[in-house]
Amino acid sequence: MKFKRILLKLSGEALMGNQQFGIDPEQLSSYASQIKDVVNSGVQVGIVIGGGNIYRGLQGAGKGMDRVQGDYMGMLATAINSLALQGELEKMGLSVKLLSSLTLKPMAEPMSRKIAVDYLNEGKVVIIAGGTGNPFFTTDSASALRGVEIQADVFLKGTRVDGVYTADPEKDPEATKFSELSFAEAYEKGLKIMDLTAFTLCQENNLPIYVFDMNTPGNLLKVVQGEHIGTIVH
User: pTM of the full predicted structure?
Assistant: First the structure.
């Protein structure tokens, strides 16, 4: 097995499937099924999921809403998605613990590095909701922070595209894919892999970032088993 403990970042938008907003039950089930296969292979799994399918603080701020208020709404959106994923994974027979940086009793326990690591060592899936618990930080930053805290082997960024490209492959047919990059190269080329806070946190703590297509069933298991199908930044 290539990675023994992973931090998986899922985008909220990806949960929409073909819908305009909200959660597509089929997409949720597909993600949960992939996660189950990885857990059953013996990998410890921590998960952070975004909230963009429900609410984005930055978009609200652009329309005149208070940024701090909007960001807290976004954090609550991550909690809704986390609860949905927890329910789906438990339906498949997995033991799942939901932790949160916001106080969400009785739904979730407060986030604590020690509790998260203890649960991971017990073979439980750990989902961490609520972002960093602070406004002005993205869920990418929260994922990087949690990945460093739980001492994950890798930060897996599950997206709709199969890696990092020279340009947006959905817009530019000439875009070419990188197989591997150093943090310095990614920064120099101005590649928008994630926001700078998250990127720097990974770089300073030697947490490799692996970008891959999560929407193709089976890809998550291929990644943790060492098959090179995305882009690794290290």
Answer: 0.94
